[in-house]
Amino acid sequence: MPKAIIEVLIEEPATERDSKLLELLRRVSSKFIGEVEVRPFKYAGPHEHPYSIGILEAYKLHAVPSIVINGKLIFASEIPSEEELERAVEHALSTNI
User: CA-CA-CA-CA torsion for 3, 40, 33, 23, nearest 10 degrees?
Assistant: First the structure.
């Protein structure tokens, strides 16, 4: 069972910016195999997974793209650097929040 759930809110259809973010998430999550699960959410829906409070907050703010880790909105309307995202995931894994 993953220790961190990373939810990402993107447009539908995906923009170039969304595609870059998804690629970044693939690279970073590959460094944490078995510890993280990435769940994409399309702004227009439908959704495959139940969504967290963080995703609801991103919807409310119209913050696309957004990254939510373990239910907390971490990056809203921005694409973090690979290092920033890795640090956020490491923090979530070490604090279990």
Answer: -140
Q: What is the pTM of this model?
A: 0.90
Question: 88, 69 in Cβ contact below 8 A?
Answer: yes
How many separate domains does the chain show?
1
Beta strands 36-42; 4-10: pairing state: parallel
**C-alpha distances in Å from residue 90, one per residue of 29, 50, 57, 62, 71:** 11, 24, 23, 27, 15
Task: CATH number of the domain at 19, please.
Answer: 3.40.30.10
Which residues constitute the domain of residue 51?
A: 4-95
Q: What is the pLDDT of residues 51-89, one digit of tens each?
A: 899 999 999 999 999 999 999 999 999 999 999 999 999
